[in-house]
Amino acid sequence: MPITRRYNYSLRSHNTFGLDVKASQFITYDTVDELITILKEVCDKHQHILHIGCGSNLLFTKDFDGTVLHSNIKFIEYVSRSNQEIIVRAGSGVVWDDFCAAMAQQNHYGCENLSYIPGEVGAAAVQNIGAYGVEVETIIKEVETIEIATGQPRVFQVEECEYGYRDSIFKNSLKGQYIVTAVVFSLSATPVVNLDYGQLKDLRSLAQMPTAQEIRDAVIAIRKSKLPEPSQLGSAGSFFKNPVVPAELFRNLALSYNEIPHFVINESEVKIPAAWLIEQCGLKGKCYGGAAVYEKQPLIIVNKCHATPAHIMQLASLIQKSVRDKFNINIYPEVNYI
Ligand SMILES: Cc1cc2nc3c(=O)[nH]c(=O)nc-3n(C[C@H](O)[C@H](O)[C@H](O)COP(=O)(O)OP(=O)(O)OC[C@H]3O[C@@H](n4cnc5c(N)ncnc54)[C@H](O)[C@@H]3O)c2cc1C
């Protein structure tokens, strides 16, 4: 398919909240050359640009007055293979879980714990997606991009991406400046597994080391039992990041809540699950308009019944205020407000 342009276009099927917001212009492209052509045209007209993947981490707060771009660059190719390391390159428009499925099928290790996370390869490198003890930065080698202002290619080595918890240089100092066109991954040909998380620990008792496919299957089963399926119930996954608090604040809280779940980051900082804080505020199932706190996982806000952007934003603010009032802890959205 060549470049396609649509005007005054509904993004309902391009955001997993299912919000019926419109973009002035929506353009999809298949190749890097097409992207460069589009960027020149859009920049010459001084239009706002937003590049999206599947819209699984976006909250459109209103119609988007500008051009929304979407990549259809879809390929998975081997760069090199040895008995140890597999270097593989994938286009930004490849569905992330299709990539994980292909790698698990070949028994290449590295992304099996990240199976079934919604979204596309390009966004995975922007977001530094993570699940079950693994973050995608651990398997990324290079991120290929095009600079929006100049149309020039630039390859970022993983060390240049400034990866952190659900964070990267593309969300901070270079936000809105580069479009990811492909990502180069380094996977392992031999089992390198992380089975430390929750129900994945059960796989440790198998007589043999589980295959990448077996781990993937287990991850998918866990996710399906806990998380809303975007096609059935709109959401953007975890709405808030888990807060990192001073150790002293944590110690004070632990005096009143001795069962408080936590993860010690270092001597002075402790991470607390935002889901626990929200649940302690009695907000599980709380509704505002058509938006609701998901019953099974209070970190998720769902579009229960024709929610509007305002319903979701109001509910998110109410949650933040409740957590601040009760625990003196600020929680911040993981979801990108647009
Ligand atoms: C049910 C559910 C479960 C989830 N579980 C997890 C989880 O376990 N772990 C986790 O980390 N996340 C999770 N998420 C969040 C989401 O899946 C990830 O953030 C994902 O990487 C978003 O991908 P996307 O293609 O939908 O990107 P979008 O939401 O469309 O975009 C996300 C950001 O990336 C930018 N972007 C997208 N494509 C490009 C590109 N090619 N170049 C430059 N910038 C780009 C966008 O501008 C935006 O800033 C979940 C979401 C849902 C709905």
| CATH topological fold name of the largest domain | Uridine Diphospho-n-acetylenolpyruvylglucosamine Reductase, domain 3
The SSE string, one letter per element, is EEHEEEEEHHEEEEEHEEHEEHEEEHE
Q: What are the bound molecules?
A: flavin-adenine dinucleotide
Please give the CATH architecture of the largest domain: 2-Layer Sandwich
CATH top level of the largest domain is: Alpha Beta
Descriptive notes:
- The protein has 338 residues and is of the alpha+beta class.
- The protein has three domains: 68 residues, Uridine Diphospho-n-acetylenolpyruvylglucosamine Reductase, domain 2, CATH 3.30.43.10; 151 residues, 2-Layer Sandwich (Uridine Diphospho-n-acetylenolpyruvylglucosamine Reductase, domain 3), CATH 3.30.465; 104 residues, Alpha-Beta Complex (Uridine Diphospho-n-acetylenolpyruvylglucosamine Reductase, domain 1).
- It is built from seven helices and 20 strands.
- A five-stranded antiparallel beta sheet has the order 6-7-12-10-11. It has a four-stranded mixed beta sheet with strand order 1-2-5-3, covered by helices on one side. Strands 13-19-18-17 form a four-stranded antiparallel beta sheet.
- A hairpin with a 5-residue loop joins β10 and β11.
- The chain is globular and about 60 Å long.
- The structure holds flavin-adenine dinucleotide.
- The site of flavin-adenine dinucleotide has 34 residues, from β3, α3, β8, β12 and β13.
